[in-house]
Design brief:
single chain; alpha/beta; Rossmann fold; Alpha-Beta Plaits; 6-stranded mixed beta sheet; 4-stranded antiparallel beta sheet; about 35% helix; ABC_transporter-like_ATP-bd
Length: about 325
């Protein structure tokens, strides 16, 4: 296994991409992506259509050949052992895969047989877990879109995988189904330390379930952050863009603006929407700090993502 040594504990890495690039003809789908998912993470992968989310998932699962870089999955990097390790991964990528003319029960029994699962109770338990007990004798082609998503999840969960990869899994679910799906993912994660990689365009739901986030834009992973750190960085307040955070901190202390955090070497977040931006700007200039912008922010995953994209586009333009 691969571990990251921290000050307090050793963290096991479930999945790691290092310098991964992928090109389709002239299109650079992924560009030097580094991504790390620790065991027990629910990792929300966020990006616009075409950003590279599905491509990453297809590379991990061997559905698309790796051109450049290294992927380490549950301790294995390549060859027969990597392919064997894929048996410990459950997936829904692009659309759930099942046989439309077979019933829910028949689909799951067939997959269980393919995976070498001999305990018949596991199929029954899985059907109950994903909420399809009343539809177990229904053919897959007769299911609603949301029920098909549940069937796909059930197929992915057979064999109790160590890693679950879900590409837009809540498409087609009604509000009640989304809430139940969220509850199920948290239950799987907390009860068995199942690691989950999930993408979704519904950022409010992704925020509810994820413990870490990766933001991908035009094939490049521009940010990885855990939920706690994002919440701290994303609280409502004033984001001050400066060229000297040390002097800025001294000025803010003197002005008693309240709680603030140095985000990086160019940004300080003041968690106070009523702070006097004009006064802050004037005092910073007097202290010799160059202020490029003071912006008002109201925190959410959507606003955090939007700001990241805005900053990334500005950097590309420069």
């Amino acid at each position: 296994m691969v571990y990251v040594e921290g000050e307090e504990k050793m963290t096991e890495i479930a999945l790691q991409l290092q310098h991964v690039s992928k090109r389709f003809g002239k299109h650079q789908a992924l560009d030097d992506v580094d991504l790390t998912i620790n065991r027990g993470d629910i990792y929300g992968l966020i990006g616009e259509n075409g950003a590279g989310k599905t491509t990453i998932m297809r590379l991990i699962t061997g559905l698309s050949p790796l051109q450049k870089g290294t992927i380490t999955l549950l301790g294995q990097t390549s060859g027969p052992k990597y392919r064997e390790t894929l048996n410990r991964v459950g997936t829904i990528i692009e659309a759930p895969a099942f046989f439309p003319h077979l019933t829910v029960m028949q689909n799951l029994r067939l997959v269980a047989k393919q995976k070498g699962i001999v305990n018949p109770d596991e199929v029954d338990d899985t059907i109950e877990l994903v909420g399809l007990s009343e539809k177990e004798k229904s053919k897959a082609q007769k299911l609603s879109l949301g029920q098909r998503q549940r069937l796909g999840l059930g197929i992915a969960l057979l064999g109790k995988p160590d890693l679950l990869i879900l590409d837009e899994p809540i498409n087609g679910l009604d509000p009640e189904g989304i809430i139940e799906f969220r509850r199920l993912l948290k239950q799987l994660n907390q009860a068995s330390q199942m690691t989950i990689l999930i993408s979704s365009h519904i950022l409010t739901e992704l925020y509810q379930v994820s413990t870490r986030f990766g933001f991908i834009h035009r094939g490049r992973l521009i940010k990885e952050i855990d939920k706690t750190s994002m919440d701290e960085a994303n609280q409502s307040g004033l984001m001050v863009h400066v060229d000297n955070v040390d002097t800025t901190s001294q000025v803010l202390d003197r002005l008693r603006v309240g709680k603030f955090t140095v985000i990086d070497d160019k940004h300080v977040m003041i968690y106070n929407l009523v702070a006097d931006a004009g006064l802050i700007n004037r005092e910073l200039l007097t202290a010799g700090v160059r202020v490029s912008e003071i912006e008002r922010r109201e925190g959410s995953l959507e606003s955090y993502y939007t700001q990241l994209i805005t900053d990334a586009n500005k950097q590309e333009a420069n």
